[in-house]
Every structure is written in structure tokens, then in C-alpha cells.
Amino acid sequence: MNNIHNYLLPHGYIIRKAKPSDMWLVFLFIIRGRLDPSQLKWQQFLVIEHDSFLVAFGQLRNFKFAQELGSLFVVPAYRNQGLGTFLIQHLIAQSTQPLYLKCLEHQLEIFYAQRGFIPVSYEELPVSLKSKFRLSQLRKSLLKAFVVFMKYQYPI
């Protein structure tokens, strides 16, 4: 599938497509995690639950000639178990266009680089993503804030 290990979900966890009833909790976690609250369409999300409690989620946002891996979140008490990597693998497998993401923290850049994403310049982004990421690029250039755009490098 790709150049990272195939993670299995720990016993008692299930992955499934999101349901409309999941979105209030997804929205709450997105706000608490300071993630991008735009384009939250429940149909685009995969969720992982444990004991009927939503513990992780992520989505593929669709753009013209591209997709964005976004809203990846694991509840803090459930981190470091491979849940984020498991979600990334499933979202990559579902992607149908070149896949991009945006990182606002250096440690996330490292996390995604270890999972097959490479940094790309703002100029290399598809037009449809440039308009979405324009404010982040301004934040990077004017405020010298940490922003890295990344593209998934499909293995050869």
C-alpha cells in the first residue's frame, strides 16, 4: 500500500464512516484542537471508536484536481497507539486525486514526513488549494509563522 508499516487497530477499536450524529463531537474536538473548522462534511470523515466512544477521526476534503487530508485528530488519552497512522493509511487508500495537507507545527511535519508526505512550496500547490491556503501563506510570509504544505508521495 505505501512505505509505512501496516498498522492494525488494537482490540476493541473499530473504524467506520462517520454518521451525522458524530458531527457535534467532531466539531467540539476540532475547536478544542484548534483545527480548521471549514468544510466539515460528515460524509468525508472516517472515525475510530472504542467502547462506543469516538476517539479519533480524519477526513478527505475534495478540491478540483486535488484532495486535502484534514481534521486528523486523536483524543489525547488515546494517542501513541497508532490510531492516527491507521486513519492516514485508510484515507490515503481512499484518495482519488493528489493528496495534500497543511502543518502548523514542526512536530506534525515530522509525523507526516514519516508517513510518506513531502514538503512542497505554496507555488507548487494546485490552484484550488492555493485559494484555500492563501491566508496560511500570508501568515507564514508576513508573521514568519510556521506553516508547511505537504504532498503525499505515492511509493514507486
Task: Considering the chains and any ligands shown, give keywords for the structure.
156 residues, alpha+beta, Aminopeptidase, 7-stranded mixed sheet, 4 helices, 7 strands, 30% helix, 29% strand, disordered N terminus, transferase, Acyl_CoA_acyltransferase, GCN5-related N-acetyltransferase
Number of domains: 1
**CATH class categorisation:** Alpha Beta
Main beta-sheet annotation:
7 strands, mixed
Radius of gyration: 15 Å
Helix content range of the residues, please? 25-40%
Shape call:
globular
Secondary-structure element pattern, one letter each: EHEEEHEHEHE
CATH architecture annotation name? 3-Layer(aba) Sandwich
Mean pLDDT: 91
SS elements, strand count = 7
Assigned CATH superfamily: Gcn5-related N-acetyltransferase (GNAT)
Measure the end-to-end span.
Answer: 10 Å
Q: What is the third-level CATH name, the topology?
A: Aminopeptidase
Given the helix and strand composition, which structural class is it? alpha+beta
The low-confidence runs, each spanning 5 or more residues with pLDDT under 50, are 1-5
How large a portion of the residues is in β-strands, by DSSP E?
25-35%
Continuous helix count: 4
Keywords: Transferase
GO molecular function: acyltransferase activity, transferring groups other than amino-acyl groups
Domain N-acetyltransferase: 13-140
InterPro entries: Acyl_CoA_acyltransferase, GNAT_dom
